[in-house]
Amino acid sequence: MVAGWDVEFLPSSVLSIPQKNRLATACLSGPRTYTQRLMTRTTCFSFLFALMLLPSLHGQTPLADPHALYLDPSQPIEKRVDDLLSRMTPEEKIAMVHADSKFSTAAIPRLGIPYRWMSDGPLGVREDISHDSWNAAGHTDDYSTAMPAGICLAATWDPELAYAEGQAIGQEARARGKDIMLGPGVNIYRTPLCGRNFEYFGEDPFLSSRMAVGYIQGEQSQDISSCVKHFALNNQEFERGSIDVEIDERALREIYLPAFRAAVQEGGAWSVMGAYNQFRGQHCCENDYLLNEILKKEWGFKGLVMSDWGGAHSTRECALYGLDLEMGSSQPYNEYYLAQPYLDGIKSGEFPMSGLDDKARRNLRVMFATHVFDPGRTNGSLNTPAHQMVSRRVAEEGIVLLKNENNILPLDPAQIKTIAVIGENAVRLQAHYGGSSEIKSFYEITPLQGLVKRAGRDVNIVFSEGYEKGGSPDLADRAVAAAKAADVVIYVGGLNKDAGGDCEGADRKNFKLPYNQDELIQKIVAANPKTIVVLLGTPAEMDAWVDQVPAVLQAWYGGLEAGNALAAILFGDANPSGKLPCTIPKKLEDSPAHALGTYPGTNGVVTYKEGLLVGYRWFDTKNIAPQFPFGHGLSYTSFKYSNLKLIVDGDDDSAVVTAQFDIHNTGSRAGAEVAQLYVHENGPDLPRPEKELKGFKRVYLQPDQTVTVSIPLSKTAFGYYDPTRKSWVAQKDDFKILVGGSSRDIQLSDSFKLPATLTFN
Ligand code: BGC
């Protein structure tokens, strides 16, 4: 390994910062990006020779000791961290704990520490951003594979697929020279209006946890650190930088924290991003209770906590309350709270050196854990067919068939002469929008393109926009005429990623479809009853027309293969198998945060009065009929559940009891079913929701095939958080084990008695 040169000394007119970094890293650890691969070894070494002269010209200490312990990959990580830390000056440690550009920390050439590059996340690797501004850097090699929305991934209920997606993103991140990926986002879908629900994994803590663990393990298998975000309670975009969340301890522990806990304890996530909002009067990026007490002490997190961009607010609080890396504020980088002001505070004795050491240590630990210093670090790969295939699978398996009367779907092209495709979303590109999760996609197949390709030459497809932002009424008239003349209508509407829709920085104003789509759909279905409604984005109110249309699909945002995936589902090449990761209410006021009038808060405070009763926990406990329940999703085949057996095992940590049951494919097509297991407690000492998801399994069945499914339930499946005891309690009690195809489609149930109370953390 060669170290000790400093590409920073090259003037910016010669190389941009990312180029300098790419060159430096290429020379340090072998070519990493597409651009670097194009550089010949000779070019690399002649640059390096010139660069090695530069430190002495500038009076710097030349070259790190190539025999230093920390450079030896065979040494344990902790020893390497200790060794490197012991060689660092306070100034160098400070350089590890704050940004030096929008998405990097500084290199320390004297010690061979390269720049550390971060990228959004979580739906692929974002395009490169300029050094000091939010403008795109304008690179030509920063395209990546656009993955579907996080909520679509959650709708697959397939943690193995989440692993595959994480792995693909990790490979692309490495190919793009990144070290930390800013995702996954695991904030709970508390209100349908949150502008970032599309990035997250829905309303249930158990489902979110399983998806997060899969994603992170896949991503981190590629020498990348995931950064799970936004810790915690960032459940609305309205006043996100300041809103103070009041919530009781049980709801915090049972609903909003489990996915973070699973991410760090089971997924092994190396980084956590603090949220913008406040919790109990303290900003989450400097929140003693969340960061020091819960994350680091209780959960034993050894990685780093970074701020959301501009989420840090004071040197003192950052220094003392658990932040390890400050990112993204607008002042000069050396004036960040954790830059010169922190160094001054260390020097004056206001803050202990041990605090800085701990922060620097955590940053270094993540670098060693992801093999930043090691020769064999993975190089990754970009936009491969395999990555595109993963994206396609997620899109296809995540589409939810909500309704399919008289089996109008799948479409048979032999029976159809003309299809009217109506709706702006049929032609809109979605990947490169929505805020920080935007992806400059290698390509993106729109729904119309996918449908035209799949329908083939013998089917005439007529497109009519129907609506657009600020569109004229004759758009609707033309769409109605097209609908009348067609055999079938495929309406492709829903939300888009414009501000006020599914987009970072603001919440939706209401739960209605935008651009008068309710009226438009009603007119279209009146003109042609064979209207299939496909909604993109997160769910919206459907009450005005849902009973009139024969088929409805929720197709989210499907990434670069969105159109092909949708066409495969509509024409039956793929059998729908997605299940809702969120309840769709009939009207907004039915959902808890709105029924109780607590959204979006008053005078800067939002109180989560519904407590534990989020999503289906509310609808089921209060007996409110949703439009479509959590876990719902139809198939072109049918499944029969039978033979539930509860096998008592007695191993509290892995399986107190195992639920075993059969699923039989009773239809004529192969297809996948997601079997869901809910637990109901009969006489809890503290009130509990009617039922809670504690297990699920996705199984693929040929026609007439039967599969036996086993779902082990450990003590955690029976526990609730007891704030008085400050621990989890699985109470000696009777429980019902409920199994079925959705939270409202319980096919099997049996009782189980927990013989003794178990407490645990
Ligand atoms: C978002 C984060 C994102 C960061 C960097 C913030 O505004 O909340 O999710 O990772 O910007 O783009």
How would you explain this protein's 3D organization?
The protein is α/β, with parallel strands linked by helices and about 750 residues long. Helices cover about 30% and strands about 20% of the residues. It contains 21 helices and 26 strands. It has a six-stranded mixed sheet. The chain has a six-stranded mixed sheet with strand order 10-15-14-13-11-12, with helices on both faces. It has a four-stranded mixed sheet with strand order 8-7-5-16, with no helix packed on it. Helix 8 links the parallel strand 3 and strand 4. The longest helix is centred in the N-terminal third of the chain and has 17 residues. The two termini are about 45 Å apart. Beta-D-glucopyranose binds next to loops.
Uncertain ranges: 1-62
Strand order of the largest sheet: 1-2-3-4-6-9
Average pLDDT confidence is 92
Number-wise, the strands total 26
Strand content: 15-25%
Helical/strand content category = alpha/beta
What is the global morphology?
A: globular
**Heteromolecules bound:** beta-D-glucopyranose
Count of runs of 4 or more consecutive helical residues: 21
| Structural Rg | 27 Å
Helix content: 25-40%
Q: Determine the N-to-C terminus distance.
A: 45 Å
Main sheet makeup: 6 strands, mixed
